[in-house]
Amino acid sequence: MKAVIALTCGCSSEEGRYYVREAYVRCIEAAGGIPLLVPPLEDQGDIQHLLRSVDGVLLPGGVDIDPIHFGEEPMEGLGTIEPHWDRLELAAARFALASDLPILGICRGVQVLNVAAGGSLYQDIASQTKGKCLQHSQKAPRWYATHSIKIEPNSLLGEMLGTKTARVNSHHHQAVKIPAPGFKVTAASADGIIECIESEKHRFACGVQWHPELMVEHYPEQMEIFRRFVRCAEGVK
What we know:
Radius of gyration: 16 Å
CATH superfamily: Class I glutamine amidotransferase (GATase) domain
Number of domains: 1
Low-confidence stretches: none
CATH class: Alpha Beta
Mean pLDDT: 95
Helix content: 25-40%
Strand content: 15-25%
CATH architecture: 3-Layer(aba) Sandwich
Structural class: alpha/beta
Largest sheet: 9 strands, mixed
Strand order of the largest sheet: 4-1-5-6-13-12-11-8-9
């Protein structure tokens, strides 16, 4: 049986629309899964009811996360936030972790995963590190790998990419600051910004700060992240 993957949708309150990038859908399909788009729902019980019928959860990229969720006031560098989007994804992440449902977070998604599990974020990397950081909002084409990361040995990410170093794209100004309890850092960039976290107790709870869905055409090894995730989800039921 193919794994059904809940793919959370972003939202724009001002424009009155839900959305998700096609690349996420195509990568889930190419990995052998069936994507199920999940919009922000008002009833938290409905979110849980829906998630009981799927085999995995993918949290995609998107806007900033409201710092209220990790106990901070908004700083000057904070960007756009969407409360309904936060509520959906934090609920989905917490349900997945509590149920040991495979979960993959990408860019904003790794940040949501970390906050849901009790970690914190940089609201704005450049201002909070006093500018001592790489260019994490690249000016190159979105698919292009602009900086390197160092991958920890004996990590899930190392297994998936088959290497101790990799080059990745970068489209973010927030990042994991303090990893959540039970999660370990398995990749970082040269400036120390966390690029991957993995749970030490779940079958698959992993988040990456870059966008592998935009890289797979030019860097096919990135597809293994989706394949491993979907394969793990296939074993849920």
